[in-house]
Design goal:
Strand content: 15-25%
Structural class: alpha+beta
Strand order of the largest sheet: 15-34-33-32-16-28-31-30-29
Shape: globular
Radius of gyration: 38 Å
Number of strands: 34
Largest sheet: 9 strands, mixed
Distance between the termini: 84 Å
Number of helices: 39
Length: 1243
């Protein structure tokens, strides 16, 4: 056993002595963060890293000094409560992690020991142990396969827990270890495994095995990773190579990048301004205290012996201590409860996302899932959406639609993209499958069964259609029309799945069956390459294993599955695989091909190849991949034959939105293969840079290829994608599509999903040098200037050009162009480029919020680079979901996630922050104002318990309820009017001015709440028993007014009242009265408050003072809200009015058509018209705008909504805004009065 800087060497089944040091990690897993010993100090350290918590700790420490006006013990209670709640939550979460770790570490596996397999706990397994795993058991460590219960040592594993992929993977031991079947075979096994050091590369493993003086290569094909499950295999035996934290599973358990919401980031500088304001208050109070002491303090005889002490008569000392005293008194200006409240509110908002039935995908039984609660409000301020195409905008369910073989194009199907393109040009294309479905009704099977043929056509029934097999040419006398009906699979297709296939073409059928045709050989080779060049695993039906049409293909990608399915449909059925062979059934005959080597696909190679030996003992290589990659490796003479024709076909396919792959082959001489095999073995057994060496060796074989043809597969758009993208763009969100597809495919998909319209100018950039890139950017600027106001510009850039665009020299210019475009499409891009584009916009566009959405592993970097990452739980596994902040099943749900939940949550989080600071500012500023009356002694106006319970009991629950349940408009309205998302009020929700406006209003309310009682109580009121109330009587009066004002102000911001709003708002006020009455009855808690509340409540002046204070505080708020809604309404005000009158949604039309008059004018004219119609005896129809009770077909507020309206109302065309509106006839005074009355009643 050894390990150095490059590799580790493992002696199989080696037992470490007691004195030997274990050089490898143990198999104990620890995912918990805390232990019993370090929980308290570590948790407190983490919590006090928060600036607010640390601030409150400092304040409490100051409160224990003699000069503090407050008791540190009382003030400690809220902080302890906050810290305890957080600590309990984290302790519970960590306890669950401990429990999970304990269960995993104590799980059991079979380990070879002393001639037999014995049970051993996972935590006791060490590197070098031989482990046996049974079917449906998880692997305890990373193992190298030795043998299994299946032929030739193969086994099937489920990697769902590792990468989220549900398709089974095939693994296989080396040929030399197949015979190790019995326990006795492992006794005295002299075997050494040399392998790479532990790393997080899930799909790579480099190593070799030395056994019986023979060195053999180990690759990813032999590795079984911890966390995976054995499936469809009775048992497997392997050698442990990585344990515990060194397994690939644990090496990938890194924390996702920490993301903070924009509001949370903006909150910090606002907190600093409050800290500065608090320091100013402390400075003013301290200076005033020092000045007062110096001038008048020594004359204050009523202070008695306190002033005889020289230290208290020193003005400088009192000024110094006064600074800290005022900071202590006003420390509540920073709401300590805000963080706890926000955590609870965001958690509930996340649960609402999870519970939203309208984002539940019934077909896959997948709900939306909020994987984090930190970013709920971020969903409401998205500026840029970066989307993958395949599997995100499309279904990632592939259908073989067309192909080009030997220069001939086959397939008559019509794609959704082609239909959309035809529709844009005023044409209509019909899917041929619809035509065949119509003809199916006329088809008479008996008619054809009675026809005589010279040679019976054998039509396969394994596929979707009945197509004659190769070499079986029908010579019947049916017409072409009848043959077309027959080909469409009317009866035989139904035996498979009852659907008409996407691939339909008579010519293909004829060329396939005519051996004399020039293309027959190419078609045979094309179908054969589709059937063998893949890594698909066939799963037979357990109840009917001999039925080939019931085989289910487990494919690593939907493309591979579609190609193998298409080959089966066309007569070449792949039905069996061993580690070294594949078997194809054609014409009821099986042909077995020996797989010599598989040169696997990766994002760098963009191709895969299979080297095989045919039944005729020929060695051939079949290669499939991207067109540019395949064409670089073609034989030049053969390329000239039909290479250009094939490229023309590929361009046509791309314009129809089809995904294309080129196929090529070559016959390899035996001698050449033997020489190459040695080089391949050397590269494959290397432990250093194996991947690059294998790529270099593959290049030697993938050359001088003969082009066969290309496949074209349709990936249909998901339902609702065009409407979703249109809504997002109407909401002011810019959509960038980042895809690996060809440029033509990407453009046409853009048209099909409404990202691109006919009015937009498409600017394409495909530069191959930095100089060309600079020139194209200049050209793009000119086009932007010409088309910016005429439909806009869509930028389409290829991956090769993007490489230059992202260089430091021109990245800023490229970004400046991109952000001005209506949309951007980046095609042929790599996963790295996706993240680079997101990062470019995120860092280059200030205050922008980005969202990345994708469904595959290649989208993970993009998702994590964006402010918000959305994972689509689709066909490509769960890696994107696992890396995301939110997951949804379909792209269309993004519309609801942003426009409904995002906007609601953004407004809710803004209001909870603003209101929390407002109510605390009002409370703290009251203390400062009182200092002017108390000679700046920092005497508190309120009792310590009242101070402590202000945030906890009397003001916290109403705002939490509002932040969870409030809806300014309904979800339906949010979706009907996307402009609401980016309306003019969004930027004002939490800007600096609005933040301080709320704080200034808190100061104003504090001033009113103090001065009104101060002047009204100038001559102290007497209670019923003749007692005066004193300081604490005024304190209760001010506090009561404060509780009323802050709760009623919140009530003014409630948009939809529910019982829980009433319960919390009025309940909080009632709780205050109950609290203060109980406090006055328990002298031990507050001796100074004993019986004060009862006395104060018995005076009339108390209730009058409270009432007047409430009126003076809130009347300005009411007037501002009224005049704002009356004369300068926001977009959501208009929608609220429409919803109140049940006017229904508006059908928008083009902006240049029609718009309504300004809202307030419509408001007045509409009621005049209503009265006039009533006077004339006409029945009034409810039609009109948001401010008049009607059912119009259009309404406008600014640029919110455009549409048509009922003909009874006068319109203003947007093209001529200077046109005057004809006034209605003057009405009688009674009519006007009636109209005004109606207007008032409506509001």
């Amino acid at each position: 056993m050894r390990q150095d800087s490059e590799s580790r060497s493992i002696k199989v089944n080696y037992k470490i002595g007691e004195e030997e040091e274990q050089i490898f990690a143990s198999n104990v897993i620890l995912t918990s963060r805390y232990t019993t010993i370090n929980f308290l100090p570590k948790n407190l350290f983490e919590q006090f890293r928060r600036l607010a918590n640390f601030y409150f700790l400092l304040v409490i420490i100051l409160e224990y000094f003699p000069f503090s006006p407050l008791s540190g013990t009382v003030s400690l209670l809220p902080l302890v409560f906050v810290l305890t709640v957080t600590a309990v939550r984290e302790a519970f979460e960590d306890w669950q992690r401990h429990k999970s770790d304990r269960d995993i570490n104590n799980a059991e596996s079979l380990v070879y020991d002393n001639g037999q397999f014995v049970t051993r706990k996972w935590k006791d397994i060490v590197v070098g142990d031989i482990v046996k795993v049974h079917n449906k058991e998880f692997f305890s460590t990373d193992l190298v396969v030795l043998t299994s219960s299946e032929n030739e040592g193969i086994c099937y594993i489920d990697t769902c827990n590792l990468d989220g992929e549900t398709n089974l993977k095939i693994k296989q031991g080396l040929k030399s270890t197949y015979p190790l079947q019995d326990e006795k075979d492992f006794d005295g096994l002299d075997m050494t495994i040399n392998c790479e050091l532990p790393n997080n590369r899930l799909y790579n493993f480099d190593g070799n095995m030395v056994w019986n003086e023979k060195k053999e290569s180990l690759s990813n094909k032999q590795i079984l990773l911890r966390g995976c499950m054995l499936k469809n295999t009775q048992w497997v035996i392997g050698v442990c190579v990585f344990t515990g934290k060194e397994t690939k599973l644990m090496m990938n358990q890194t924390d996702p990048p920490s993301k903070r919401s924009t509001i949370e980031i903006q909150l910090n500088p606002r907190l600093l301004t409050i800290f500065a304001f608090l320091a100013i208050i402390g400075l003013v109070g301290g200076i005033a205290a020092g000045v007062w002491q110096t001038k008048w303090g020594t004359k204050a005889w009523y202070l008695g012996k306190v002033m005889d002490d020289s230290i208290f008569t020193n003005g400088a000392f009192l000024g110094f201590t006064g600074f800290f005293s005022f900071i202590i008194v006003c420390n509540v200006m920073i709401p300590i409860s805000l963080y706890v409240s926000m955590e609870i509110v965001k958690l509930i908002q996340s649960l609402f996302i999870n519970w939203d039935e309208k984002m539940y995908h019934a077909q896959s039984k997948t709900p939306a899932h909020a994987r984090t609660s930190n970013l709920t409000e971020e969903l409401g301020i998205i500026d840029y959406v970066f989307s993958d195409k395949t599997g995100t905008l499309t279904c990632n369910v592939m259908e073989f639609m067309k192909c080009t073989i030997g220069g001939f194009s086959y397939g008559t199907g019509v794609t959704e993209v082609a239909m959309a393109a035809a529709k844009r040009n005023g044409q209509i294309l019909e899917d041929p499958r619809k035509k065949y479905k119509k003809k199916k009704k006329k088809y008479n099977s008996e008619k054809y069964s009675k026809k005589k043929t010279k040679k019976t056509t054998n039509i396969i029934d394994e596929g979707n259609v009945g197509i004659p097999l190769l070499d079986q040419v029908s010579t019947d006398d049916t017409s072409d029309e009848e043959r077309k009906n027959k080909m469409s699979g009317n009866e035989l297709g139904e035996e498979f799945n009852g659907e008409i296939p996407a691939f339909i073409d008579d010519h293909f059928l004829n060329h396939l069956n005519d051996k004399e045709h020039e293309n027959s050989e190419f078609i045979h080779e094309f179908l054969l390459s589709m059937a063998v060049c893949h890594t698909v695993i066939p799963e037979r039906d357990q109840e009917d294993p001999d039925n080939l049409k019931k085989i289910v293909y487990q494919a690593a990608s939907p493309d591979e599955g579609a190609l193998v399915d298409a080959a089966r449909m066309l007569g070449y059925t792949f039905h069996s695989r061993t580690p070294d062979t594949v078997t194809i059934s054609n014409n009821d005959e099986d042909s077995t091909y020996e797989i010599l080597n598989v040169l696997e696909f990766n994002s760098t190679r963009k191709r895969m190849s299979v080297i095989m030996k045919t039944p005729q003992d020929e060695i051939k290589i079949f290669t499939k991949g991207a067109d540019n990659v395949i064409y670089e490796r073609l034989n030049k003479e053969q390329e000239e034959a039909f290479g250009e024709t094939t490229l023309d076909h590929l361009e046509i396919f791309a314009k129809e939105g089809l995904r294309t792959l080129c196929f090529a082959s070559r016959t390899i001489p035996q001698e050449e293969y033997d020489n190459w095999k040695k080089q391949f073995h050397e590269a494959n057994t290397s432990l250093v840079d194996r991947k690059q060496k294998l790529m270099d060796v593959a290049e030697l074989m993938e050359r001088d290829l003969r082009l066969i043809g290309a496949s074209a597969i349709e990936d249909k758009l998901q339902k609702g994608v065009p409407k979703a993208i249109e809504a997002l763009m109407n909401a002011g969100i810019k959509v960038w599509v980042l895809t690996g597809d060809k440029k033509e495919t990407a453009i046409n998909i853009g048209f099909a999903c409404s990202l691109i319209t006919n009015e937009m100018y498409i600017q394409q950039i495909d530069s191959q040098s930095i100089e060309a890139m600079k020139e194209e950017i200049e050209t793009c600027k000119e086009q932007m200037a010409e088309h910016y106001d005429n439909g806009g510009v869509v930028l389409v850039i290829t991956g090769s050009a993007l490489r230059y665009a992202l260089m430091d020299e021109i990245r800023d210019e490229f970004l400046a162009i991109g952000i001005k475009c209506k949309a951007v499409v980046c095609c042929r891009v790599s996963p790295l480029q996706k993240s680079q584009v997101v990062d470019l916009v995120r860092k280059g566009v200030k205050k922008s919020v980005t969202l990345g959405i994708g469904d595959g592993a290649n989208d993970v970097s993009m998702i994590q680079a964006a402010h918000v990452g959305i994972g689509i739980s689709g066909q490509e596994g769960m890696q994107a979901v696992l890396a995301s902040d939110y997951s949804i099943a379909q792209f269309k749900f993004l519309k609801r996630l942003l426009l409904v939940h995002g906007r609601w949550n953004f407004r809710r989080v803004c209001i909870i922050i603003l209101y929390s600071f407002y109510k605390n500012m009002a409370f703290a500023f009251l203390q400062f104002i009182f200092a002017f009356q108390s000679s700046f002694t920092a005497q508190t106006l309120f009792d310590a318990l009242c101070i402590s319970f202000y945030n906890v009991a009397f003001t916290s629950f109403p705002i939490m309820v509002l932040s969870v349940f409030d809806q300014d408009v309904t979800s339906k309205a949010e979706l009907d009017y996307p402009k609401l998302y980016s309306g003019g009020d969004r930027d004002k929700e939490f800007n600096f001015v609005r933040f301080w406006t709320w704080l200034l209003e808190g100061m104003y309310h504090a001033l009113v709440l103090f001065l009104i009682p101060f002047f009204l109580w100038n001559s102290e009121p007497l209670a019923g028993n003749g007692q005066t109330s004193g300081l604490w009587g005024m304190s209760i009066t001010v506090y009561t007014g404060l509780v009323f004002v802050v709760n009623l102000k919140l009530a003014l911001h409630v948009n939809n009242w529910t019982w829980i709003h009433h319960f919390t708002i009025w309940g909080s006020i009632i709780v205050w009265f109950v609290f203060i009455l109980l406090l006055g009855e328990i002298p031990l808690l507050a001796p100074s408050m004993y019986k004060v509340a009862v006395n104060v409540f018995s005076t009339g002046i108390f209730w009058f003072t409270v009432f007047i204070s409430i009126v003076i505080c809130l009347v300005p708020d009411i007037l501002i809200k009224y005049f704002r809604r009356e004369f300068k309404p926001l977009d959501y005000h208009i929608i609220q009015e429409r919803e109140k009158r049940n006017l229904g949604p508006i059908e928008p039309k083009k902006p240049e058509q029609i718009a309504l008059k300004p809202t307030i004018s419509i408001f007045k004219d509409a009621f005049k018209k209503k009265v006039q119609m009533l006077v004339n005896g006409k029945k009034y129809r409810h039609t009109g705008s948001a401010f008049n009770p009607g059912n119009s077909q259009g309404v406008v507020s600014g640029n919110l909504i455009v549409g048509t309206v009922d003909e009874d109302y006068e319109l203003v065309t947007l093209n001529n805004t200077d046109n005057k509106i004809n006034k209605d006839q003057n009405l009688s005074s009674s009519g006007t009065s009636s109209g005004q009355s109606s207007e008032s009643d409506e509001l």
